[in-house]
Each structure stands twice: as structure tokens, then as C-alpha cells.
Amino acid sequence: MSLVFVQIRCTPGRTYEVADAIWDREVVSELYSTSGDFDIIAKVYIPEGEDTGHYLSSKLFDIAGIQRTLTTMTFRAF
pTM score, two decimals? Predict the structure, then answer.
């Protein structure tokens, strides 16, 4: 299993709606609202053998109200 963090920019006024839709899909382990250029950050574990881009596209990125995402792949926890 690999871990990625996904930052999500939402259509103005739709952050809570997007967050609820993400949480309802049971794909993320943690989900936070944030300040700055993005509105939400999600901690996502990618199942072994899954292509990260395809997994995220099929599980998250089709949610209405998402304008942009930034995915950060991780290598090692300290």
C-alpha cells in the first residue's frame, strides 16, 4: 500500500459539499479543511497493485465541485 496526500481546490461555496461527498466514498483515511491555495487535504492509501492516477481519477476526481487537485506521493515516514 502506498500513501498520497491530495490537496483539493473547490468551487467557491462548495467546500463542505465536496468534503461530504469525498468522505461518503470511504476512500480517504483522513480529510481536513485547509488555508491557502487549496481548500481540503486528503490522506489516501492506494491499494497494492493499483495505478495511483487511475485510482484517484476513478474514486475521487469525478466529484462535482472539484476545480483542481495536487497529489503528493510519499516515500518514507520518519
Answer: 0.93
CA distance 7 to 64: 15
Alpha-carbon separation of residue 32 from 15, 42, 51, 52, 72 (angstroms): 11, 7, 24, 21, 15
Buried b (16+ CB within 10 A) or exposed e, 61-73: eebebbeebebee
Cβ within 8 Å of residue 15, ≥6 positions away: 33, 39, 40, 65
Q: Which of 20, 45, 46, 24 is nearest to 33 (CA)?
A: 20
Using one digit for the tens of pLDDT, what is the confidence trace for 4-33?
Answer: 999 999 999 999 999 999 999 999 999 999
